[in-house]
């Protein structure tokens, strides 16, 4: 059975999609961009953007009863691959151990609202 996951602690969807869907213990989180859920404003600057994206992912994981420890796959989309090292360091800081999820990082020409970073994630819990 599919359960839609929604929290006001992460930005509302800006299109016809859900923040996340939980199916048989697997959580599929839509791509998160650096929007502050409280103000609805975009965060600027790659470091601040990346922290906000990770906070948004954390809020959705928490709503589903999970944490970054449950993450099994992440996809990072960057507008500029020159930001890779900064994003990578911040991303890694949100995990408690070296049991990182599988991941790819790709450069794209444009992201929603013209942000610099977007991250989607898949997590699993028995």
TrEMBL record:
GO terms for cellular component: cytosol. InterPro entries: RidA (IPR006056), RutC-like_sf (IPR035959), YjgF/YER057c/UK114 (IPR006175). GO terms for molecular function: deaminase activity. Transmembrane segments: none annotated. It comes from the Bacteria. Gene3D superfamilies: RutC-like. PANTHER family: 2-IMINOBUTANOATE/2-IMINOPROPANOATE DEAMINASE RIDA, PROTEIN HMF1-RELATED. Belongs to the RutC family. This is 2-iminobutanoate/2-iminopropanoate deaminase.
């Amino acid at each position: 059975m599919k359960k839609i996951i929604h929290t006001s602690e992460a930005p509302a969807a800006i299109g016809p999609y859900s923040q996340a869907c939980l199916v048989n213990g697997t959580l599929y989180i839509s791509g998160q961009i650096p929007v502050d859920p409280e103000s609805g404003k975009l965060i600027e600057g790659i470091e601040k953007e990346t922290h906000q994206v990770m906070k948004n992912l954390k809020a959705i994981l928490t709503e589903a009863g999970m944490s970054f420890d449950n993450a099994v796959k992440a996809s990072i989309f960057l507008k500029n691959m020159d930001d890779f090292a900064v994003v990578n360091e911040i991303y890694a800081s949100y995990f408690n151990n070296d049991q990182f999820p599988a991941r790819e990082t790709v450069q794209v020409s444009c992201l929603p609202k013209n942000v610099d970073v977007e991250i989607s994630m898949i997590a699993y819990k028995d």
